[in-house]
Amino acid sequence: MTRLRSLSRVAMLLLVLAVVLYPLIWVLGSALKSPTEITSNQSIWPEEVTWGNFTVGWGYIPGVSFGRFFWNSFLIAGASVLANCVSCLLTAYAFARLKFFGRRVWFGLMIVTLLLPGHVLIIPQYVMFHEFGWVDTPLPLIVPKLLATEAFFVFLMVQFMRGIPRELDDAAKIDGSGPYRIFWHVIAPLARPALITTAIFSFIWTWNDFFAQLVYLPSVPSYTVPVALRLFVDSSGQTSLGPMLAMSVLSLLPVFLFFLAFQRFLVQGISTSGLKG
Predict the structure, then answer these.
(1) pTM of the full structure
(2) What are the residues whose beta carbons fall under 8 Å from the beta carbon of 57, sequence distance 6 or more?
(3) Which CATH number fits domain 66-275: 1.10.10.60, 1.10.3720.10, 3.40.50.720, 3.40.570.10?
């Protein structure tokens, strides 16, 4: 009975895995098909592997290599990760460990912003950034993150820091440490799992973002990968499906590799082995 139950669980997991991976396998298989085979061959994998879609897709946009779009995406995603990690970590430390007037009120207001749809702010933000002369630059997508505008990450880090024993702060104070040294030498190293989680989701959300990048980056040389993929559809509605799917496959690789490198931190808690004794 136990063996049968184990086999049924494995079969269920394999079924779920197949459902989850099917779209990815279909995209990869279609990216390796010739233009005629994409429309005629209904099977997932091509009868004859064709690598030409990647070459055509890379140079599909006249005057601009697709590598330029990857560079723009890496620049914005990397800067957003750094800005989110630094600003949200500092803000969370203030809410979780410091005492100041109105702390609960300000924390509550920050939580309320999670209920506010981001699209409501697009018009006033666009007007403001246009007055600054930042439109068609990465600044509107990066600078706000330096101000800890991502309330979800602040909340995540606050909850994580509240689980760190306050006895560590007291011990550091006895040794003569102030708030800055406590943050840098005690809280920041222990908050690494929450920090890595913030970095992972910041990278994925920024890399896959389409709407904000479409609004603030109107010229083709400043496009990111998600926005550039729509260039494969011309004004008449015709789609270069093969090259578009080939570039879609390449666009998935950075997210996959980034997650693969840091996924173990998603489930890592505070290591208590160094807190004993």
Answers:
(1) 0.85
(2) 66, 232, 240, 242, 243, 244, 246, 247
(3) 1.10.3720.10
